[in-house]
Amino acid sequence: MYTSPTSRAIIIIGRNQTNFTHELDNLHSLNPNGTYTFLETDISLIRTIDHLTPTILTHLNGTQIDLLTISQGYISSSGREPNPEEGPGIPRSSLHNYGRIPPGSEPPALHDLTRTGSLVSSPADKKGTIIEDDLDLERYYSIPASMAQFASMTTLSFDYLAREYPRKSFLHVFPGLTGTGLLGRSATGVLGLVMRWVVEPVLGGFCCYA
């Protein structure tokens, strides 16, 4: 997609534009005719996602999206602890589902402007049985249960969107491990140190980095 001689307009959304500078340079090198816009914001917050949609629509300026990729997520090693930046009663784990398939009227606006479809990067191969009487895992939370529950819920959400938008394609895939430092930030204390200095370096040999 990036090496095509035709002009491409790509919008990248992430926390830190400085850390992404090298990748932006690579994109310009691969396709000098492309336009690459980095929107610096924390998409690990649901309230940020709600405010981000109008910004994306402004940058699109009426044009359509060829491919929409959504990959934000969060791993919690300490259960359904609330996120103080979101507000009381909103656990960090809610980002897994509602951050990718948010409720309300704004996400359909993005889907309406998507010409081809959406691609979600998440542990799609970790789908499992949904605990119907504990959808938010208030009683049965664990990391494996969280991965299975929200991966399955994302697939079901995509099934619904595919029926609502029959001319578009929705892919729920697992492209592989990505080294983002997420594991080290997901825990505190001794466990956080182990994640940061032992687990992440070991997994680093099998990851691509973002």
UniProtKB/TrEMBL annotation:
Recorded protein name is: Ketoreductase (KR) domain-containing protein
**Which branch of life, at top level?**
Eukaryota
Which of UniProt's keywords are assigned here? Oxidoreductase
**GO MF entries:** oxidoreductase activity
User: Quick one: where's region Disordered?
Assistant: 76-125
Name the PANTHER family for this protein: ALCOHOL DEHYDROGENASE-LIKE C-TERMINAL DOMAIN-CONTAINING PROTEIN, YALI0E05731P
| Xref: InterPro entries | Sec_Metab_Biosynth_Oxidored
Q: Tell me what organism the protein belongs to.
A: Hortaea werneckii
